Amino acid sequence: MRDHLHGKDTPHPDVWTGRATNRVQWLLALVGAACMALGIELAVESAWTSGIAALAMSVVGCIAAGLLVLFGTLAFVHVDLKLDKECVEVRCGHIGVPRRRIPLTHVAGAEFDPCVTPRHWGGWGYRWRPEKGTAVVVRRGEGVVLRLWDGHTFTITVDNAEAAVRAIRARLGAGTPGTAV
Question: How many Cβ atoms sit within 10 Å of the Cβ of residue 26?
Answer without folding.
Answer: 12
